[in-house]
Design goal:
By secondary structure, the chain is an alpha/beta fold. The chain is built from 13 helices and ten strands. A six-stranded parallel sheet has the order 7-6-5-8-9-10, sandwiched between helices. A four-stranded parallel sheet has the order 2-1-4-3, with helices on both faces. Helix 1 crosses helix 13 (251-258) and helix 12 (233-241) runs parallel beside helix 13 (251-258).
Amino acid sequence: MIILHLSGGLGNQMFQYAFGRANAKRLNTDLKFELSDSTLTIHTGFELERVFEIQVNVTTQAEIQSILGWQKNPLIRKALKISGLNKIIKSKLIDEPHFHFSPEILQLPDNVFLSGYWQSEKYFLEIEAQIRSDFSFKLPFSDRNSETAREISKSNSVSLHVRRNDFAKNSKINAIHGLCTLAYYSAAIQFIEEKIASPNFFVFSDDPAWVKSNLKINHPCVYVEHNQGLESYNDMRLMSLCRHNIIANSSFSWWGAWLNSNAEKIVVAPQRWFVNGNNTEDLIPHTWVRL
């Protein structure tokens, strides 16, 4: 059995699910999730089962006890992680060692408890088709989203995602992520202009008023503003239907671009994903363009 500690918003949950799914398939073992992390209350909460055609098996305290023993307590786990003692004592509690890809993790034994974000497609490329199938959106589009999807299909559509609210307003988050600059978006738009004819931009943002006031787009442009609250995931769905993508330093738009099935897609991503020095060399697929 693999037990995976789930945390963060929808994009983070998707990375963790894909990582766990690949390891469980390789080991031919059960995959279960712990859902106690407080960050699962961020944005619209735990969403995997509600949004996608998948079933998430939630672990029990008895199952955690069977793997971790005396390390079951979350406070003990946190102390072990901070001190690094979990590595010294050969614990079955395995924390992500660093942000970039860790090939040794692909040699995991069975019966482990995993904690981390695991943000690289290298962890699950071996079952890419399965992950794409798992992340099939479950619910039908609303009439308004159906109309937007039709507009997307009829044009040389380019999604452009600007994430600001939590990154801008929360000083702790801002100190880690920072904000994509106007210079980045201007360069990304120019890059698209040079590569494709007659682009039609579909702009997704949690701060559309700021985008309208600050970002100049000299092409047909649709601001997608109607997906709020529990419907927010539909922005990712619509991004995935665009022919090309300009993403923010956000796992949400990363997945919108990754789920885009256009074999000739152009995906532009920011060179600077974090401001805290995390190594992101394995975060962006090699076919995407970093600016």
